[in-house]
Amino acid sequence: MGIILNPVAWAVIVGVAYGAVSQLYYLNHSLRHFDAAQIGSLKYVGTNALVVIGSVILFDEFASITTRYSFNLTLAGKFANYKFIKI
After folding, report:
1. Which of 10, 13, 40 is nearest to 27 (CA)?
2. pLDDT in tens, 47-87
């Protein structure tokens, strides 16, 4: 019952609803001007990036991350991108 009274939960719900409606609105407009292959990939990457950033902020994930850990994580991501994703 505590989550219903939490103002942060309501702010997240309103923000997600607004974001979903905005995405559909602007997706519809962009499909009028550009090819669907370009728009689909941009929407996918943009949505996933915003979801990850939002969840990191909401759950305070950066509190325990050091500079060395973030550097190693970036290197691992670059290596995985180079090694496993062939475009």
Report:
1. 40
2. 888 888 777 777 776 677 788 888 888 898 888 888 777 65
Please give the model's pTM, rounded to 2 decimal places.
0.46
Report helix, strand or coil for 14.
helix
Rounded Cα distance between 25 and 19, Å, is 10
Question: Lowest-confidence range among 5-19, 29-43, 51-65?
Answer: 51-65
8 A C-beta contact, residue 45 and residue 65: no
- Tokens 């509190």 correspond to 63
Residue 40 and residue 29 share a domain: no
Give the domain extent around 20.
Answer: 1-33
Is 29 in the same domain as 46? no
Same domain for 69 and 53: yes
Rounded Cα–Cα distance for residues 47 and 69 (Å): 25
Residues 6 or more apart in contact with residue 62 via CB below 8 angstroms: 56
